[in-house]
Amino acid sequence: MKYKVITWGCQMNVHDSEVISGMLEKMGYVPAEGIKDADILILNTCSVRETAEQKVYGRLGQLKPLKQNKPNMIIAITGCMIQQPHVVDFIKDKYPFVDIIFGIHNVSKLPQLIETVNYSNYTIVETIENETWLEEGLPYLREDNIKAWVTITYGCNNFCTYCIVPYVRGRERSRKPADIINEVKSLAEKGVKEINLLGQNVNSYGKDLLDERITFAQLLYELNKIKGIERIRFTTSHPKDLSNELIFAMRDLEKICEHIHLPIQAGSNKILKLMNRNYTREHYLELIQKLRDEIPEIAISTDIIVGFPGETEEDFLDTLDIVQKVQYDQAFMFMYSKRKGTPAAEMENQVEEEVKKDRLERLMKLQDSISAKKNEQMKEKLVEVLVEGYSKKDKGKLTGRTRTNKIVNFKGSESLIGQLVMVKIVEPHTFSLFGELYNFQGG
């Protein structure tokens, strides 16, 4: 029996798909080369933007003839989308050939759900979850033996007015530090060199752990001690919870990479308030200055939304201004997308699509020029690169990342994959760097 998992969305979803794959392999399934070869197909969905949901509906439409030709094939759908009742109802109505709809927190029930399909003639729905309970010890299948995602929190308490995440992933729950430490130790024993700690807001880790008082910075100190792990990253950080303690930990701990993803979302205080972000542009700029004072070589990336309800040209110019002031290494930029059930979807003064598109183009043009300039400054520099494998765009080159999260491509032998090497940057590009192998320091 063969399986296929298709994933949309963020790193959290990628990690969730690793757990789903682990569950299926424990049940005896093996990976299918393609969708048509699969006996069970699972779609792991995203609901952050409407375009992500439309991609899922498009894929479901494509699957209808396959299901007709292969009626015993099981099609299941999970992820953030199906935590919304109206989406579940829509799928049951428009795509009745879907066999299972299950919440990502119900993944431990997957064997029973698959078994139930064998004697039912209707769509099985299992989306009820106990938000206060986290199940540990589930198997997972990681395709990458060099880097690993490690979830430290689930859900979110921030309720930004544009965001659906707290409604679909629930309130914030922190994993126990011992469970996280044990998972990372296990990864180190398997040869993993880099871990990336995941949470909607990693900075608030531990605030809900009443029995074990621990901060995110204190967790980093514990993880930094684990032998075999060479690099530690984390995402995402909320500016309102970025403490001096965390900044000092990033400065002092040798395994913490010199990079932070710190979403600004907008440069206008008026828009930040409407978004319920709970910080001002002035406070954000103070944080940037603190980070650069303590960690001069730090790279900073961000998320920005344009066209939020009520955003005027003046508000947008504030966003361009803060991008110019901060000089981000990288930015993920999006047009505002209405999400049903969020306060922003009901706000007045929705911005016209053409205005959103124009602002996004202007923002991207500015950020691309900054990214290119930042990368140009890397020319002739020696950087440490963790080699991840062959480049997808050029199979003749190896690819990896610097500690500051910049992609570097260079020529080298397969034996370097998984190792730390020094590379001299010879040709900077806007989104990546090309270099030459300098020497080999790994073992």
UniProtKB/TrEMBL annotation:
Its EC number is 2.8.4.3. The keyword NADP does not apply. The keyword rRNA-binding does not apply. This is tRNA-2-methylthio-N(6)-dimethylallyladenosine synthase. [4Fe-4S] cluster 1 binds at residues 10, 46, 80. Its cofactor is [4Fe-4S] cluster. Residues 376-439 form the TRAM domain. GO terms for cellular component: cytosol. SMART domains: Elp3. GO terms for molecular function: 4 iron, 4 sulfur cluster binding; metal ion binding; tRNA-2-methylthio-N(6)-dimethylallyladenosine(37) synthase activity. The lineage of its organism: Bacteria, Bacillati, Bacillota, Clostridia, Thermosediminibacterales. [4Fe-4S] cluster 2 binds at residues 156, 160, 163. Belongs to the methylthiotransferase family. MiaB subfamily. PANTHER family: CDK5 REGULATORY SUBUNIT-ASSOCIATED PROTEIN 1 (PTHR43020), MITOCHONDRIAL TRNA METHYLTHIOTRANSFERASE CDK5RAP1 (PTHR43020:SF2).
